[in-house]
Design goal:
single chain, about 60% helix, Suf domain-containing protein, HAT_Syf1-like_N, mRNA splicing, repeat, spliceosome
Length: about 220
């Protein structure tokens, strides 16, 4: 009830701001993406920010409800959409307010839409997403959502060994042997030779802990 009241007050006090801030969230039914969040500004067509397949499989559309306390932060990022500091302040605000994880995820996604090349944003976001599944069974669909986030991060962060290392460790926990091996191989192809020593210890530990002799021999060679 308080949220609805806050939304009404925001609309009355800041009609232009609310018009710009209204977001549409697509909870896709794509088997590879689960309920991953896709965001588009209200004045854009859905096709402009998501694939045709995602739009076709959209199950529901909901409007994000802003808290009154968010107004200052929203105005700040509207004025400075490419300011990393502004986005980090907003995210920290949502965490301090103990906002639901989905709301914080959404702010991260919006920030990454504006700053896809920010290592700090991706790294913090991935860590935050991993914390959300720490108490879940590795077979829970939520793990696939985190895997998808890593894959999206690597489109921009493929030269960052730490992202590869943590992704490989995360996949190892899920016992996805084939997928983990392929990601290790991709990391070695993507990273410069001078950074391979960051990957090899993890890779060797992985292959020796699973019954995959052919891969073990190849890795040792």
């Amino acid at each position: 009830m308080r949220q609805r009241f806050a939304q009404t007050k925001l609309t009355q006090k800041h009609p232009v701001l609310m018009n710009q801030l209204e977001l549409i969230i697509f909870a896709g039914a794509d088997k590879n993406k689960g309920n991953e969040i896709y965001i588009t500004m209200a004045n854009q067509s859905p096709e402009a920010s998501s694939s045709a397949n995602t739009v076709e499989r959209t199950k529901k559309i909901v409007s994000m409800i802003f808290e009154e306390e968010d107004i200052g932060f929203e105005e700040d990022i509207l004025k400075n959409p490419f300011s990393l500091r502004s986005w980090l302040r907003y995210i920290e605000h949502k965490k301090k307010c103990k906002a639901p994880s989905k709301q914080i995820n959404l702010v991260y996604e919006r920030a990454l839409k504006e700053l896809p090349g920010s290592y700090k944003l991706w790294y913090n976001y991935l860590r935050f997403r991993r914390k959300q599944v720490v108490d879940k069974c590795p077979t829970d669909p939520a793990y696939k959502h985190v895997n998808n986030a890593y894959e999206r991060a690597l489109v921009f962060m493929h030269k960052m060994p730490r992202i590869w290392m943590e992704y490989c460790e995360f996949l190892t926990l899920q016992r996805l042997v084939t997928q983990t091996r392929r990601v290790f191989d991709r990391s070695l192809r993507a990273l410069p030779v001078t950074q391979h020593d960051r990957i090899w210890p993890l890779y060797i530990k992985f292959v020796t802990s699973h019954e995959i002799p052919e891969t073990t021999i190849r890795v040792y060679r």
